[in-house]
Amino acid sequence: MCRPTHYTVCYEINPWMDSARPTATALAIEQWERLRSTYLDLGHTVELIDPLPGCPDMVYAANGATVVDGVAYAANFRYEQRRPEAPAYLKRLADLGFAPAAAEFVNEGEGDMLFTGTYVLAGTGFRSEPAAHRELQEAIGRPVITLELVNPRYYHLDTALAVLTGDLIAYYPPAFTPGSRAVLEHLFPDAIIAGEADAAVLGLNAVSDGEHVVVAPRATRLAAQFAERGLEPIPVDTSELLKGGGGAKCCTLELRR
Length: 257
Prior knowledge:
By secondary structure, the chain is an alpha/beta fold. The chain has helices at 25-41, 85-95, 130-140, 178-187, 196-200, 220-228, 239-242, and strands at 65-68, 71-74, 99-101, 113-115, 120-124, 144-148, 161-165, 168-171, 192-193, 207-208, 212-215, 232-235. It has a three-stranded mixed beta sheet with strand order 1-2-3, sandwiched between helices. A three-stranded mixed beta sheet has the order 4-5-6. The protein has a three-stranded mixed beta sheet with strand order 7-8-9, covered by helices on one side.
């Protein structure tokens, strides 16, 4: 995770961002601290990376890399405003003992690459290139499934799909092409289908440890759907960070050894 010390919305690179809308850095830090405390209370380890001045989006740690089986596949950001983040994340992960893998192709880490335990679901359409999916597969030796996004409000895969357990996901079908929806229906016939109201507040930008799901408080129906499947929903407000286009998952890069 990365503390939002320098968080603000001073440019616009996704539909959620409005540089004319005031942001409150202190509130963003308070909400982030609550998210971090939630993970610690659940017994998880949280590693931190120092925030860089001039990188207000660095709080969205999920975009910084994809980490599977001890390999850290580097991010390669589409927009120049975020490009300084990638080498910083890769160095920090190397310092933590992960094997760094460079990225030739544009990708935005776990924002678009979600590991199910068997393979990686990989998004494209707005940020990450399909060639990066192939590059990731070569780096980690796990099958990678390409899914195409079509709604700019769901510009990263982790805004439209959440991995809850190895064989259970939740997703919002209108965010995907018909072919990608068919792939998801085939691979995950028992998936939770999110409604528009919950998807619109980034309810799917959730973090699951297989027993608990950290979820946006306004995604009430989705939280009930999680509970119906035996998962405990834990509402954590990240509304100030939503102004930059991210929620709990965007703020969380999972490190898999």
